[in-house]
Amino acid sequence: MAETRIQIERQPARHVPSGIGIVHLGLGAFHRAHQAVYLQRCLNRVQGDWGICSANIRSNRTLVDQLRAGDLRYHVAEYSDSEHVTLREITVIAEALYAGPDGPDREALLTRMRDPAVRIVTLTVTEKGYFLSPSSGELLTDAAPIAHDIANPESPDTAPGMLVEALARRRTAGVAPFTVLCCDNMPHNGQRTRRAVISLARHREAALADWIDANVAFPSSMVDRIVPAMTDADRQRLSALGVDDPAAVVCETFSQWVVEEDFPLGRPDWEADGVEMVADVAPFETMKLRLLNGAHSLLAYLGALAGIETVDAAVARPAFRQLLQHYWQQEAIPTLSLPAGADANVYTDSLLARFGNDSLRHRLQQIAMDGSQKLPQRWLASGVERLTAEHYSDMAATALGVAGWIRYTAGTNLAGQPHPVDDPMAGTFVELHRRHGDDLPALTVAFLALDAVFPTALREDPMFVKTVTTALEHLEAGGVEAAIAALASANPELGK
Ligand code: NAI
Ligand code: CS2
């Protein structure tokens, strides 16, 4: 792509914040391209004290150092297509900290979180950062970082641990608690964060847990913007546009943020910048998690097995578009209670256009990461609802997706080319493949027996088990597009 043809719209920052009102945990690409952009729009309208202290507590210390070296300024490159980009300058991050176990800033972060001026704490620490069982939602007290925080509550390593210690300090000092706003891709993400925090606090002091339960707001939010992890090629194309800040990110132009209204200490006037404030975010998040993220995961595993590298390359293939339509029309949309005024077909048409944006170069490998943490809310919850609904279906597309995920976790595509399996349960997957090898029925049963991932209702449904096994056999025998074709012949409505 010749960058010289590209049309550039520049959006310089108009102010720097007069104070820090928000702490963010998880200074990742999505935070820099989503929450920070909404707050920058607010800051550009009116200079105010909703500046952000952004912290990494687990990894990526380099990024914190780079952001500090760049005066905390960076750019967001919003590509509508390969010939049009908006370069947005961000100055809303007023402090960057690295508070990892090996880092210097844990105390600085906890002191900042105790500051009465900090009224909101937001998080993007990935689905695994809450240490909740993907199926039961219970706190994983056996996880080493949580065990550390139970034993060392005043020097926490995890996001829940940081929140508990900061809230404990505010309670001791008589400072009202901040609002906790989760921005990770989880259903009822505010309630899940609440459960992790209160469960951990209860291991420390029942009175503290009760105080948090009675006084701390945990609104949920639905977040949406496709923000691929930066690659060297991205850095090169931004450099060609004169953008050389190491914290720069690339993303699509689409962005959506739907937030439950529950901010006792106040919040920025986000509505003026396009944020939707609602009483109940559930219809928005279920639609997004099942239609966008569920489709993303289908493309990720089946596309990777077919040797495809990016989302746009996958949806360029008719078979993959057929599969998405079948999944949406037959398996996901029937389970939704849509937000008022929403049209599911308009939404899925917009998803195909977003997925087809070839300027994003969104790698399937990134989406495939952490499947054990993602599949329950993306495919399996709707699968259980279909088993118990009167419109029972064999869930052929969901089953093909599960088969693709199982095969993906073997660490090679169907041509035998290796790929990483980045998942907290990767060790378990290695053992299951070693034990069952080519015995596909046994391999299927063994994976479905992972009760941290698969609900009992699915594991014990003979039709679902059979459909997954058959899909796995089709994948191994003839490849991905043959497996989709077999699904189509068994489901004539496919792709209508
Ligand atoms: P990223 O890899 O750029 O950043 C991940 C962040 O999570 C880093 O700050 C890392 O230090 C932190 N982290 C990872 N594991 C952690 C743990 N166990 N405890 C504490 N912190 C941990 O990824 P990105 O793109 O920022 O995505 C992060 C999350 O944002 C996703 O998992 C998802 O929940 C949400 N999201 C991402 C979107 C995207 O398109 N990238 C879109 C919508 C939501
Ligand atoms: C993706 C999401 O990596 C993934 O799991 O499905 O990050 C996706 O890009 C966002 O949810 C889009 O809003």
Condensed summary:
The chain has 496 residues and is α/β, with parallel strands linked by helices. It is built from 21 helices and 12 strands.
Give the helix/strand layout.
Blueprint lengths: L6 E5 L8 E6 L3 H5 L1 H11 L5 E6 L4 H9 L4 E8 L2 E7 L2 E6 L7 H9 L5 E4 L20 H8 L7 H15 L5 E4 L6 H14 L3 H10 L5 E4 L7 H8 L9 E4 L3 E5 L15 E3 L3 H24 L5 H5 L2 H15 L11 H12 L8 H5 L2 H18 L7 H13 L17 H11 L3 H9 L7 H4 L2 H17 L1 H11 L6
Parallel strand pairs: 1-5, 2-3, 2-7, 3-6, 4-10, 7-8, 11-12
Antiparallel strand pairs: 4-5, 9-11
Helix pairs in contact: 4-6, 6-7, 7-8, 10-12, 10-15, 10-16, 12-21, 16-20, 17-18, 18-20, 20-21
The chain binds 1,4-dihydronicotinamide adenine dinucleotide and D-mannonic acid.
What do these coordinates show?
The chain has 496 residues and is α/β, with parallel strands linked by helices. It folds into 2 domains: 3-278, NAD(P)-binding Rossmann-like Domain (Rossmann fold, 3-Layer(aba) Sandwich); 282-495, N-(1-d-carboxylethyl)-l-norvaline Dehydrogenase, domain 2 (Orthogonal Bundle), CATH 1.10.1040.10. It contains 21 helices and 12 strands. Strands 6-3-2-7-8 form a 5-stranded parallel beta sheet, with helices on both faces. The protein has a 4-stranded mixed beta sheet with strand order 1-5-4-10. The longest helix has 24 residues, at 282-305. The protein is globular. The mean pLDDT is 95.
